[in-house]
Amino acid sequence: MDFARALELVGGHLDGEGVRWAVCGGLGLAAYGQVRTTFDADLVADGDAADRVIAFMERAGFETLYRSRGFSNHLHPDPGLGRIDFVWVYGTTRERLFDAARTLAGPGGRPIRAPRPEHLAAMKVAAMASDPARTFQDLADIRFLIDLPGIDREEIRGYFARHGLEARFDELEASR
């Protein structure tokens, strides 16, 4: 997948439409310096624009593989554009996430927006809670985020607690 090309197409459209968005998942981690293999582009975007954005994705040749209120997955037949997954956020979560997002260097040197590391960790914890098979990779990603300078560890602990996963947070802390 050509991440710079995919972000230019999709991100350019979102910017042009005034839709708030940021990278998350593997690209979000990469923006903070954790480079790991990822095969798709994960974006978090304003859920109030989901219908318009999904319509654009389909006009651009992406097939919608799955859609719910909180997520959608899109695959393009051109491997260079690959798969793009959206996390749709609403209300207070949306406002907190985008108000605190940071502009960092992205693929191809393009400036991109990324959530605060604490918010990336919150997304990882929620993913782990909904799909325990993700636990090993997500804990490794969260460990990287927790070790970044200036991180609010108690905020991250709160995200684990919200999903009943305090023991996992304690394991991370004990292994440091």
> Strand content of the residues, in percent?
15-25%
Helix proportion range: 40-55%
- The radius of gyration computed from the alpha-carbon positions, rounded to a whole number of angstroms, is 16 Å
Text of the CATH class of the largest domain: Alpha Beta
Listing every helix as H and every strand as E from the N terminus to the C terminus, the arrangement reads HEHEHEEEHEEHHHH
Number of helices: 8
> In one word, what is the shape?
globular
Uncertain runs with pLDDT below 50, 5 residues or more?
Answer: none
Distance between the termini: 34 Å
* Mean pLDDT level: 94
CATH architecture title of the largest domain: 2-Layer Sandwich
Give the domain tally.
2
Entry summary:
The chain is an alpha+beta fold and 176 residues long.
What would your notes on this structure say?
- Helix content is 49%, strand content 20%.
- By secondary structure, the protein is an alpha+beta fold.
- It folds into 2 domains: 1-115, 2-Layer Sandwich (Beta Polymerase, domain 2), CATH 3.30.460; 116-176.
- It has a 5-stranded mixed β-sheet. Strands 6-7 form a two-stranded antiparallel sheet.
